Amino acid sequence: MKISLFLLVYFSGISAYLSCMATQDDIIGIDLGTTNSAVGVVESGFPILLANSDGQRITPSAVSYDNDVIVGAAALRQRGAGGSVITSAKRYMGSRYAEVKDDDFCVPLIEDDQGNVRFQVGENSVSPEDVNAEILKHLKSVAETQLGRNVSKAIITVPAYFNDAQRTATKRAGELAGLEVVRIISEPTAAALAYGLDKLEESSRVAVYDYGGGTFDVSVLEIKEGVFQVLATTGDTRLGGDNLDETLARWCCDQLDELNYDTLEISERQRLLDAARTLKEKLTSSDSAELQIPFFRPDLNIDLSLTTEQFNKLIHTEISKTVRYCKQVLFDADITHLDKVILVGGSTRIPAVRELVGKVFGMEPDTSQHPDEAVALGAVIQGGMLSGALREMVLLDVTPLSLGIETLGGLMNVIIPRNTTIPCKAGELFTNAVANQESMCVRVLQGEREMARDNWELGRVEVSFSPANKGQARVGVQFAIDENGILEVLTRDTQTGEDTILEINSAAVDVTDEAVEKMVTESVDYAFDDMAERVFTEAKLKAEELLPAVDAGLAQVADEMDPADLTEIKSAAEAVRSALKQDDANTLKSAVQKLDKSTEHMAAILVEKAMEAALMRKLES
Ligand code: ADP
Ligand code: MG
Predict the structure, then answer these.
(1) Is the same domain home to 127 and 257?
(2) 185 and 257 in one domain?
(3) So what's the pLDDT on residue 506?
(4) pLDDT in tens, 275-314
(5) What is the Å distance from ligand 2's center to 169 Cα?
(6) Does ligand 1 lie within 6 Å of residue 90's CB atom?
């Protein structure tokens, strides 16, 4: 009796297609970082980062000059072997020797005829551009190996604070690597692109907190109709994850009488720092971790363990140094309101850093992207936009909001859920709610709310069918959305096979982002009330069905029943009637359940009687 609706067919053919013109001219995107670099490209319409021969999307910005030039993790491994390994060359892009001559760098610094800085490697010397060119060349070859074709154009990112000389030096490095540098873009802008912030339509202000390996910077961007402007940027080129490694290495020496950080040999210090970095990175995903270096010295094995709690205490001072820059950048940008904070740089993977950022800016940072890949990804997206690889893509369309019809009690019955890939098709079978009903109105709705009235009506169609007892007529409703977003609603009287077709233009798919967001936000905001109303409505429908049935049953078999049962049923029915007058979903639901339960006995007697009657009829005939 309670079949008010059941499933007829469900074939939501998730067959989506994606076509992309073969990109004639790839433009690769490169994050040329102080510590790590990455490269990617738009491939088949998707921005992706490409893995190097170690299977890693991130390549250390290290170059070793011995017999051969080696780049990446392999270069870092040469460090112990006494070769000339250069790391953090980016710090010296566009630098004058006089400004940096006292720096403590991995190789000796020397001056060229024009007063620029060079690095001494064995008997030769190389410029910062040369070193970065080696890294870029390496990334170019990673891309070519992965894509199986040559690439010649690139977008390269630089810090927002890079001056003209530094940008020119970066461009030159690209040219030395055989790349045409189509554009130099700033790292925070690239990161914002990767986080999809160009889609924000109104003007919005975003803070980009970039805590990398050797540097920290924070910027405030203004994004207006897809155009980015850096309002302010500040930071410290000597503040990064490396300092945390040193903090840990010092802690390690403090635990062991044999070691003093300041008097360690260079190679010992390097091994300890490498182990400290591993320990640090492990602590972002577990509560405690070990630092073990067997045979650190012939008579010394290091075996220490650290909990995240202790780690947080150790790094507190260091990470807190970023706070004043955050305050500074907000002051410089002269704004009172921020819309978003995004995280960039590997060191923002540390939970304590995320917490700190949340506190400083008074809002949870967006962590939806890999922080150490966001800059490269943004460069890739920019490259894809310039080459046309992103524009020419046929977007994989999905239904922005759920589609359904109104059912008894004013409820929304979803037929195609939100975010279903189109084209798609789905349907259900409905029945008449009232005896001898001759038609029913199918209201096509769109939205995420539980009650039909809170959703949007896309159209309606009157379906007629042959009169029948309540719940006997069958009407199939099928929704089909084609690749153009046209929704076709087909209703069929299953008895006569007669179809009615209602066509709704692309309204089912063409909804503005704001409207979708508003609907979704409302559905979340009202989730509690909506659910309560749905529960109440469903319980009410059930009550309206039960009460007359109970009255009819009592009239028939009351005198055959146990008086205690009778009293129970009557009071349960009374409870339902009074609950109907209140507005509490749970009260009504449990009253209905109680009434249903209390009538079990009566129902058994009724069934028995009905069977007896049927038997009598049979005997009589
Ligand atoms: P860059 O400074 O070149 O932009 P990255 O953004 O890649 O470099 O950041 C590198 C830093 O991030 C290193 O100090 C590294 O130890 C740190 N890092 C990477 N992953 C983690 C992690 N899981 N936990 C803590 N630090 C991490
Ligand atoms: Mg970086």
Answers:
(1) no
(2) no
(3) 63
(4) 999 999 999 999 999 999 999 999 999 999 999 999 999 9
(5) 18
(6) no
